[in-house]
Automatic annotation (TrEMBL):
Record has Membrane as a keyword: yes
GO cellular component term of the entry, any: plasma membrane
Recorded family membership: Belongs to the UPF0761 family.
Transmembrane feature ranges: 20-49, 89-108, 129-153, 173-191, 203-224, 230-259
Subcellular location: Cell membrane
Protein name, as recorded: UPF0761 membrane protein C882_4290
Keyword tags: Cell inner membrane, Cell membrane, Membrane, Transmembrane, Transmembrane helix
UniProt source species: Caenispirillum salinarum AK4
Keyword presence, Protein biosynthesis: no
Membrane topology: Multi-pass membrane protein
Length: 417
């Protein structure tokens, strides 16, 4: 029970540390600017496929009526006018729309990388591929889903039609939640530049989707009571309300991202010893890394990339990077020209003591010079006896520790390529 209550407290601390509300405000303003370019590009891609070209109105209805409560029709009309006007733009104008859309995607990726503790952003080519996939494949998938549903509903087969019509009521009621759940799950898995477990993304997406449904319900009530906006702003009343809605929506999205990112960190904390000894954590991560690399060698692999190793450990990225760099500096691991990590030493000759020294674990063998300390001699003698006692254990070859059901030949180092 205490652990169940501790996780929400941990998430709240992460929310405050990551300044989620401030980031949501930034994303709300950028979304207000970037929404039209994103829709213009998406609808242009749909128009290139004759079978999907007539789905624009239905997609607009899906977005604004299901996800923007109460005042969605006013926003939809305004956005539709802007999107129609974008069709008259020159090449320079189209490039400007693309730049604004990329700015929105870049800002979202940066926010997610910060939440997921990603220290290295994607390369320029990697970003281009991800963004291009989002802007092209996304509209096509949405269009294909509409075409599939239309095809099912138009079937002449009596049995299929009855089933579809019978399920239509419940499905239409939960469709916004299911669509939001799927979108958030994909969002949390694809946007961060690290591998995210499906279950973690699904849990974060489920919480975010439930909060989003509650937000829609609450916002409808709020707008119904906020008639002063329409009295004061008239036709422009939808603008501040829409901006508020964007801020609240991004807050929910980021909260789901924090939950997704917190789950592996929380699992790592639960796996620690009860006194929360950080040295034990580093040692566990180190042997998770070594074990995964030994398995890769046994399978004939040529090393593993950092995201693969990070996923294998399930550790927070900051702790993972510290251990990885420590083992590299200690000469135990190395990185090839192809940015793959390999074991740099023969594990039959590398010892547990080598790993401990690389990670900075254990007591010092000797004391630095200390002036006028009466206890210096006694402490030095004690440390020396302790070191002599633990030396046999520290000289245990790593091959003996990692050789469970592994051939010794695979515990030799890779040749860097």
């Amino acid at each position: 029970m205490a652990r169940a209550a501790a996780f929400p407290r941990y998430v709240i601390r992460r929310v405050l540390a990551d300044q989620v509300l401030l980031v949501a405000g930034d994303l709300g303003y950028i979304s207000l600017i970037g929404l039209v370019p994103m829709l213009a590009i998406g609808f242009a891609i749909l128009a290139a496929f004759p079978a999907l070209g007539d789905l624009r109105g239905r997609i607009e209805d899906l977005i604004f009526q299901n996800f923007v409560p109460s005042f969605g029709e006013q926003v939809q009309e305004a956005v539709a006018r802007f999107v129609d006007a974008s069709a008259e733009l020159t090449i320079v104008g189209v490039l400007g729309l693309a730049v604004i859309a990329l700015l929105l995607l870049t800002t979202v990726e940066h926010a997610f990388n910060h939440i997921f503790r990603v220290s290295r952003a994607r390369s320029l080519v990697g970003r281009f591929l991800v963004y291009w996939t989002v802007m092209t494949l996304g509209p096509l998938l949405v269009g294909a889903s509409f075409s599939l549903s239309s095809w099912l509903l138009s079937l002449d087969d009596r049995t299929v039609s009855d089933v579809v019509n019978f399920a239509g009521g419940p499905l239409s009621a939960i469709a916004p939640f299911l669509l939001t759940l799927m979108a958030f799950t994909l969002f949390y898995m694809v946007v961060p530049n690290r591998r995210v477990r499906f279950k973690d993304a699904l849990v974060g997406a489920a919480v975010a989707a439930a909060m989003f449904a509650a937000l829609r319900f609450g916002f409808v009530i709020y707008v119904a009571q906020a008639q002063n906006y329409f009295t004061l702003y008239g036709a422009l009343a939808a603008l501040p309300l829409f901006l508020t809605w964007l801020f609240a929506s991004w807050t929910v999205v980021l909260l789901g991202a924090v939950i997704t990112a917190s789950r592996p960190e929380w699992r790592m904390q639960l796996a620690q010893v009860e006194d929360d000894e950080p040295g034990i954590r580093r040692l566990i991560i180190a042997f998770d890394l070594l074990g995964r690399l030994v398995d890769d060698s046994a399978e004939g692999g040529s090393g593993l990339r950092r995201p693969e190793l990070l996923n294998a450990t399930g550790a927070p990225e900051a702790a993972f990077v510290h251990v990885l760099e420590s083992l590299e500096n200690g000469g135990i691991l190395a990185r090839t020209d192809r940015r793959r990590w390999i074991i740099a030493r023969d594990l039959r000759h590398a010892t547990l003591g080598d790993v401990a020294r690389a990670l900075g674990l254990g007591l010092p063998e000797t004391l630095p010079p200390v002036v006028d300390r009466p206890w210096r001699g006694a402490l030095s003698d004690t440390l020396e006896r302790l070191h002599d006692a633990e030396r046999p254990a520290l000289e245990t070859p790593l091959s003996d520790i990692l050789s469970s059901e592994r051939p010794v030949a695979h515990l030799r180092p890779h040749r860097a390529s």
